[in-house]
Amino acid sequence: IVGLTDGEVKVRITSCVNTGKITNVGVTATVGDGHGSIAGIVGCLNNSVDTVIDDCVNAGEIVAVYKQATGGIVGGAWRSDKTCVAEDNKVVIKNCKNTANIEGGWQTGGIAGWMRINISIENCENSGKIVSNQSYSGGILGRGGFDNKHNVKNSDGTYSYIKVFITDCKNTGAVQSFTGQAGGIHGYCE
């Protein structure tokens, strides 16, 4: 549906469906910048604020051969602009479903791949097979959070770690990781 959002924009995506196969063969982006991230609904959210993705479905196979975040609904969410404050810098994914198989190069999840931003995943389901060709794979979320170099600034000037909330979610798909960090719901919380 969307490849990349960039800048401090509010994003609302509701009741969208993807059934087509998506791949990132030949991506040359550097590891960690997020621009090679792929998913059925949004590939990459970069510095988006107050984002809500609601009632969306991915039924298309996702195949990433490059080492980037891969998810059924969202591939990756990044906060590279450190002027964003924590209260505004968040993503909510709710009432979404992935039914397709997902093969990622790294950070692979049935709903979301790598969320380096405050994230709430609510009432979501995955039934597709999730495979990470390296590490960090989860039935709902592959990898949430980031190290303390990327903590978020609060409106009062203090800093806090990224917050990850996963509520009322269900995974029935197989989860596989070749080098480690795999979970039925969340692969790796940092």
Short recap of the structure:
The chain has 190 residues and is mainly beta. Helices cover 0% and strands 47% of the residues.
Mean pLDDT value: 87
Poorly predicted sequence stretches spanning 5 or more consecutive residues: none
Termini Cα gap? 28 Å
Q: How much helix is in the residues?
A: under 10%
Judged by helices, strands and strand pairing, the structural class is mainly beta
Pattern of helices and strands: EEEEEEEEEEEEEEEEEEEEEEEEEEEE
Strand coverage percent = over 45%
Number of strands: 28
Task: Please give the order of strands in the largest beta sheet.
Answer: 1-6-11-16-21-28
Number of helices: 0
* Largest β sheet strand count, sense and barrel closure: 6 strands, parallel
**Form type:** globular
Rg on CA atoms, Å: 15 Å
Q: Could you characterize what this model shows?
A:
By secondary structure, the chain is mostly beta strands. Helices cover 0% and strands 47% of the residues. It has strands at 2-6, 10-14, 17-18, 22-23, 38-39, 42-46, 49-54, 57-58, 62-63, 70-71, 74-78, 90-94, 97-98, 102-104, 108-109, 112-115, 118-122, 125-126, 130-132, 137-138, 141-144, 152-153, 159-160, 164-167, 170-171, 175-177, 182-183, 186-189. The strands form six sheets. The protein has a six-stranded parallel sheet with strand order 1-6-11-16-21-28, with no helix packed on it. A five-stranded parallel sheet has the order 2-7-12-17-24, with no helix packed on it. Strands 3-8-13-18-25 form a five-stranded parallel sheet, with no helix packed on it. A hairpin with a 5-residue loop joins β22 and β23 (159-160). It is globular and about 45 Å long.
